[in-house]
Design goal:
This protein has helices at 2-16, 20-34, 41-65, 71-78, 81-106, 111-125, 132-149. By secondary structure, it is mainly α. The radius of gyration is 19 Å and the shape is globular. This is UPF0756 membrane protein NQZ67_04440.
């Protein structure tokens, strides 16, 4: 019962906060619960991130498939500051994601904070949830900064 109530609250937060992704996700999960398909929740939890990343990657790769990115775009990318910075940003993001994955493996209960933080970011900062790995990776960075400054956790 508490799970359904939380999902309804998330639907309302999504609608009020104008976050259709949050509202839709909560609606779909509520429907799964109300239709008594809870047996699929572990599969959704286990494979949902992979499917989301698959569709995100597909949408990013469409310009390649559509032929809108040419060989000259690659050379421009490798010889310009924005291109070099984009390469660096991509490499750093994947490194940070790997640290986030380590954190999630070693401290799985941190997911509660990541989810609540993501909801706050979606609703109040107009953010877009792209996955818990980056959020966990940023958490690792913040944790290390906090420890370096002298905090203890």
């Amino acid at each position: 019962m508490i799970g359904e109530l939380i999902l309804v609250i998330l639907i309302l937060v999504g609608v009020i906060g104008r976050s259709p992704i949050l509202a839709t996700a909560a609606c779909l999960l509520l429907a799964v619960k109300l239709v008594h398909l809870e047996r699929y929740l572990p599969a959704i939890e286990r494979r949902g991130l992979e499917l989301g990343l698959l569709f995100l990657t597909l949408s990013v790769l469409v310009p390649f498939a559509a032929g809108r990115i040419q060989l000259k775009d690659f050379t421009a990318m490798l010889t310009s500051w924005p291109g070099i910075l984009a390469l660096t940003g991509g490499a750093l993001a994947t490194f940070i994601n790997s640290k986030g994955l380590d954190l999630l493996k070693n401290d799985p209960q941190i997911v509660v904070g990541l989810v609540l933080g993501s909801i706050i970011g979606i609703v109040f900062l107009r953010g877009i949830p792209v996955g818990p790995l980056m959020a966990a990776g940023i958490t690792v960075i913040l944790y290390k900064l906090f420890k370096m400054i002298g905090g203890s956790l």
